[in-house]
Amino acid sequence: MAGATRPPAARRRAPARVLLQACPVCGRLRPSTELATHVNACLDAGNWPSSGAQTTTTTTTTLDAPGRDSASAVPSHAPEVSLTQNVNVNKKRAREEKDKDKEEEEEVDNDDSHEPAKRVAAPTTSSFLAAWNAPRLAGHFVLENVITEAAELDLLRFLGDPTKGSSSKQCEPMWRLRHFNGTAYGKSWGIQTNLAGRTQSPPSLRIPSALRCVVDAVRERASHVPHIGSTWEPTEANAIAYVPRLGHSLEPHADDRNLSGPAIATLSLGADAIMTFTEEKGTRRVRVPLPRRSIAIQTGPSRYAWLHSIQNGDLQGELRVSLTFRRGKFEMERRDCWE
């Protein structure tokens, strides 16, 4: 109609800006707000890429976010930060923290009023995250939070504090300082293995029923893992207690590949750690974080082609206890190995 004025055009909303990041496990792009949940789902499913796989990075991408006002999204004037930049910042911080820790160690070593320091720098948050983002190892599975904090505390009380000796209430056998594959306290149950004679014999101490909850958790959370399934029944268990201030560590080694079965499960208690895998016939190294209350399972290449170790500086906290379960080569009835 002549002389009529057009209504003002509707103001177009600016599209929300969403940061996409690559999952360090499967490599798929996910919104940064959903990445943690997605990674945990990948871990539970055991979708590890091969040891040579590399983590993919991506920059900020603009996406339409249906049902969201642009005011609630990232402001348009906010600087775009890429995942690559974040990784570079973390690396820089890790280098600075490493240099600082080295300076502190030198100061302690030059101080004649103290005993020589056995303890090296504890892993920093940056180094733990760097290990988390490292390439994954084929055949190695880490399942987080398989037991509750209350169950963790019950197990630690049951095992006892190795630093208090006989004054600590603990289950049999008593903790003993061992120098096998590194220095740490240890105790064991189930079948007895003679590595020199290459034989196994019935147990002198059966596996305590108090540890049954760990096996149940492995069956429930790792039924998809090769050689585990829902009927996995270990015949041997051992506990190792690491006290970082005493210089404890685990030297590079492989659990016996003939006398023990194809799957080994280890529960971490008390503190986090970082395990280093070294290719037995090569030069590659992969660092894998082991959070407390997590279960790590070695199968396939991680069991038969790599050595594993824990450096003293990769032990966190004042005490870390590992509970490792194996199934011996020779079949034995459950009643012979468990209380």
TrEMBL record:
Q: Which organism is it from?
A: Pycnococcus provasolii
Residue span(s) of domain Fe2OG dioxygenase: 231-329
By sequence similarity, the record places it as follows:
Belongs to the alkB family.
Disordered: region residues: 44-122
For this chain's UniProt record, which GO biological process terms are given?
Answer: demethylation
Question: What's a single GO MF annotation on this record?
Answer: demethylase activity
PANTHER family named among the record's database cross-references: 2-OXOGLUTARATE AND FE-DEPENDENT OXYGENASE FAMILY PROTEIN (PTHR12463:SF1), OXYGENASE-RELATED (PTHR12463)
**InterPro entries attached to this UniProt entry:** AlkB-like, AlkB-like_sf, ALKBH4, Oxoglu/Fe-dep_dioxygenase_dom
Lineage start: Eukaryota, Viridiplantae, Chlorophyta, Pseudoscourfieldiophyceae, Pseudoscourfieldiales
Protein's name according to its UniProt entry? Fe2OG dioxygenase domain-containing protein
